[in-house]
Each structure stands twice: as C-alpha cells, then as structure tokens.
Design brief:
Layout (H helix, E strand, L loop, with lengths): L5 H18 L2 H4 L9 H4 L3 H14 L13 H8 L14 H8 L7 H25 L6 H26 L22 H18 L14 H18 L4 E3 L2 E3 L1 H14 L22 E5 L20 H6 L3 E2 L15 H6 L6 H4 E3 H5 L5 E2 L9 E3 L23 E5 H12 L2 H10 L10 H12 L5 H6 L3 H8 L32 H6 L11
Helix pairs in contact: 1-4, 4-7, 4-8, 7-8, 8-9, 8-10, 9-10, 10-11, 10-16, 11-16, 16-17, 16-18
Length: about 525
C-alpha cells in the first residue's frame, strides 16, 4: 500500500500464507516446527500484530488468485452492469469476463473462483489478526481495541463483497487450523449481514477519526460509518429484513445518524472540480472516505506471479489500446462503456470526466488506436485508465499502475443519506458542484439518476440495480438494439439478457463444492 509499510506487509503476507498452507495438512501438523519464526512465537507484540493487520489490508489490492483468472472488483462489477461490456482483444481474450457480461456464468469460471479465494484470504488474515490482538499482553486496552477494530472493518469489507457476489457463503469467524475446520455449511444471508453489522458497529466505537499523514489508507471511524450505510441500503433493497448488531437494531434512523455524522463532522467534503477526483493529485483527498492503495513497485510480483503485484490492474485492463500517445499508455480495453451509458449521460457535465471517447483520443497527432477489439464501442472508462502519470516506473509497467481506487467517497455518502432521509438538499449539494440546477423535491428516480451520473464507472451501478428489485434489474441489464456509431461487429455481440433465475448472484465455485465433499450447495440458477 502506498503509505503503509510494504516490506512489512509482504514479509507477513508470505508468513501467513505459509501458516494457511500448513494448517490444512495433517502430516505437517504432526511435525515439530523446524524454523525459528512461527505464528505462535512471532505475533506476540503490538508491532508484529500490526504487521499482520497490514497484510490484511494488502488483500484489498489482490486482483488474482494463484493460478486463477484476474478479477479486479472494479472491472467485474462494471462488466456485470449495463454501463460496460466485457471487451478485450477478442472473444477468447475475455471469455471469462464475457460470461459475466452475458449472465451465462459457468461454475468453473476462473474469475468466480478468484473472487471467492481472494476474499477468504482476507477473512483468514482478519481473523488471524483479531485472535493475535486479543491474546496480546503488556499493551493498553486502547491499542488492542484499535487493532481489533481495523481488522473487523476489513472482515466486514470482505464479507460484504462475498455476500453481494455469492449470497450463500461460509461465515468464517475464526482461523482454521485443519482441513476439517473449513468444511462448514453456508450461512443464510441474514446471519451474514448481522455479523457484518456487528463488526462495523464495533469498529465505529474503536476506530480513530484520522491517522498521521504517513499512514493514509487505514480505515477510520468515518469509513466504517459509510460502509455501514452501503451495507444497510443493499440489505434493505434486496431482502428488507433489517440487520441487528448484537441487539442493536440497524434501522434507517440509526444509519442516517451515522452518515450525517460523516457529513457534518468528519472534515470530508466534495472536491471542487469533479474531473480532478481521480487524478493522482487527489489521492487521499478531502472527498476520499476510504481508498484502496496501489503502488508502482513490483515487490514480489511480475509476469508469472501476478497475484503479488501492487499495481491497479483494473486501470490497466480498462485503458484504451493506444500507442504513441503523450497522455495514455497502452491498455487492454476491458469493461468498455456502453452506448447506452453514453446516451443516458447526454447533457450531464460529468460525462466527459466519466467516458473517454474515441474522437478525443484520435485528435492527438500520431497516435494508433485499435478500434477492432472485442465489443468495441469507441468509449473507455475515464476515471480509471492508463494515464502516463500513473504508470509504474520499475518492473513491468502495465502491472504496476499507481492509481488508487476510491472505494467510498463523500459524494456517495451524501447520496446514501439523501436516499435514507428523502433529502433533496444532499442531492442538490452533489449537483451544485458540477453547475446543475437544484431539484425541487426528492424522488427515488431522481436519486438513482444522480447516483448514475455521479458514480458511473466506479463499480456501484450493478449493486444499485439489484437493490431496486428484479424487475428493474432485468429491464436495465437486458440490452438489445442499442448500437452506437463506433460499434464493431454484429449486433448480437452487444446483446445481453439478465438471468432472473440467479437473482443476480454468481455461482459457488465448483472446485470449492468438490473440496467440501458436498457440504457446500450451489446457488439457484446454476
């Protein structure tokens, strides 16, 4: 992570990986330790438990499992939505991505397995950190509580990503030490959401408001409050059951209080210029409530060991296939925006900062732009892309894009509060930044339109559609006949049809079902 100790992260990440690997082998468990550094005698001071915490943060940036497909959250969430197609050089290049795009996922899809593995790696490390922090001696209650609070925030983050993608997941609240430990039946989504809420309420109580400038990237109390808002809105939209955090009812009123605390007391605010939000100069800026860091240093990862790279692969994957540009370096044209999004944003001043257009690129003399790639539309994600300013400087540059992912920003907090409180003033505050006229009153349609205009290209649209209900999801996610002026190939290449049988969730990886000896069951529709 840019501002956390990468050497410590990697050292501990490899150590914990060794613990994970050995924990599942009964033969190894029966052998006396041969090394001098083991989890039992290493993680016994606050500094070393903090290293374990840093290795848990590191998983936020994982975009590929060992021997598995690349799965940047941003790319996959965009491809699932009506805002982007799979893309890639050709149909074979993005075959796994295209299964997401067409809602024709196979249970052996490599990206599906990678998403599962990445998040369970994060859960393992979060649980490990919590257990080691709880066992610390000779530390203050405050130090212990903060270590646990950060790990619980991260555990909530990983669990939320899992339950949104898969719905029926294994609720892992301890550190497995044997193969039998991981043969656990799936929990219902209600149990998982209550667990997430409990972790976030605990985190809010013990996280600090801020950190020193050398430690940006760590979760604050404000980040936990904002994430609770996101979780609450998704649970309410999809299930409507409500969450409970150890007896505390997570109601609209409760969550709105948390969000308005962020709005009024956090010091966060909107960036003055919308187009500046995603530039390197605005990283950890006033609008960034929680940000996932990427670095231009290979550390332990390059071609062949991509699971260890520190760069933002989403930006690399979504960049234009361009050469000889003075502004952009060559990307791979995945998750390319649809003409539907381009039309929907017509007249909105945020469109040019959201969608990079073919005509803009070709206006630069001497460039070469590949306009024949798969599902080509002539559009690219302008928020996360291959800016030369973000290119890595060592190792393989395309694997080490340095642009951070703004996981939660202040504009989203305003819009979440607007939605819960039916408060048009918060919507208008977002609109005023880009010079749009105030809306006279709150409506649900106005709220979701504003979210679309403000947040497109940031991995949120798909989840917004699911929480609006299956009818809306099917209507928006089924695309037919919207052919743009730059589309390349037959119309059917651009047609998608939402599979209502799955309710928008992806399959449990078949490999995991097989390893569980049938303890895990497959989701509906697969």
């Amino acid at each position: 992570m840019n501002n956390l100790n990468i050497t410590s992260i990697k050292k501990v990440a490899f150590l914990i990986l060794a613990v994970i690997t050995t924990a599942c082998s009964s033969d190894i468990l029966d052998v006396e330790p041969q090394g001098s550094v083991f989890a039992s005698n290493y993680f016994v001071t606050a500094d070393r438990v903090e290293e374990s915490l840093y290795s848990t943060y590191d998983v936020l940036g994982h975009q590929k499992g060992r021997d598995l497909a690349w799965s940047p959250y941003l790319v996959i969430s965009e491809v699932l939505s009506d805002d982007a197609y799979a893309g890639g050089q050709d149909a074979g290049d993005g075959a796994d991505e295209d299964e997401f795009n067409r809602f024709q996922l196979g249970t052996a899809n490599g990206i599906v397995h990678s998403i599962w593995t990445r998040n369970y790696t994060g859960l393992y490390r979060a649980n490990f950190t919590i257990e080691k922090a709880e066992a610390l001696e000779n530390v203050t209650d405050e130090v212990r509580a903060q270590l646990i609070a950060e790990a619980k925030f991260l555990r909530a983050y990983f669990n939320f990503e899992l339950v949104r993608f898969f719905e029926n997941i294994v609720l892992l609240d301890f550190t497995p030490t044997s193969a039998d430990d991981v043969k656990i039946p799936q929990s219902g989504p209600g149990e998982v959401y209550n667990f997430i809420a409990s972790d976030l309420v605990d985190a809010i109580e013990n996280l600090p408001d801020s950190y020193p400038s050398s430690e940006t990237g760590r979760a604050t109390r404000w980040a936990a409050k904002a994430l609770l808002g996101r979780v609450h809105l998704f649970e309410q939209g999809v299930y409507g059951v409500g969450m409970s955090a150890d007896g505390t009812a997570i109601t609209d009123s409760y969550v709105l209080t948390q969000l308005e605390d962020v709005i009024n007391n956090s010091g966060h605010d909107l960036e003055a210029n919308f187009a500046d939000i995603f530039l390197s100069s605005a990283e950890f800026g006033i609008e960034s409530v929680f940000e996932i860091s990427y670095a231009g240093l290979p550390v332990g990862g390059d071609w062949g060991t991509e699971q260890y790279v520190e760069g933002n692969l989403a930006a690399q994957m979504m960049g234009p296939r361009i050469t000889n540009s003075s502004t952009y370096y060559r990307g791979w044209a995945f998750a390319i925006p649809t003409h539907k999004l381009f039309l929907d944003m017509n007249g909105d001043p945020r469109r040019d900062a959201t969608i990079l257009q073919q005509a803009q690129l070709q206006a630069e003399p001497g460039i070469t732009l590949n306009t024949g790639s798969y599902q080509y539309t002539g559009y690219y994600n302008a928020k996360y892309t291959t800016r030369l300013a973000d290119r890595g400087t060592v190792g393989t540059p395309e694997l080490h894009n340095m642009s951070n992912y703004r996981a939660i920003r202040f504009a989203d907090v305003l819009l979440m509060a607007a939605e819960i409180g039916n408060n048009v003033a918060y919507i208008n505050r977002v609109r005023q930044r880009v010079g749009l006229a105030d809306l006279p009153a709150y409506t649900e349609d106005a709220l979701f339109n504003e979210r679309r205009m403000e947040l497109s290209g940031e991995g949120l649209r798909y989840w917004d559609l699911l929480r609006r209900g299956q009818t809306v999801a099917a209507q928006e996610l089924t695309i037919s006949g919207v052919i743009g002026p730059n589309y390349s190939g037959p119309n059917e290449v651009y047609e998608t049809s939402f599979n209502s049988a799955t309710r928008g969730f992806i399959p449990i990886p078949q490999t995991e079902i097989d390893l569980s000896n049938g303890v895990l069951t497959q989701n509906d529709g697969y």
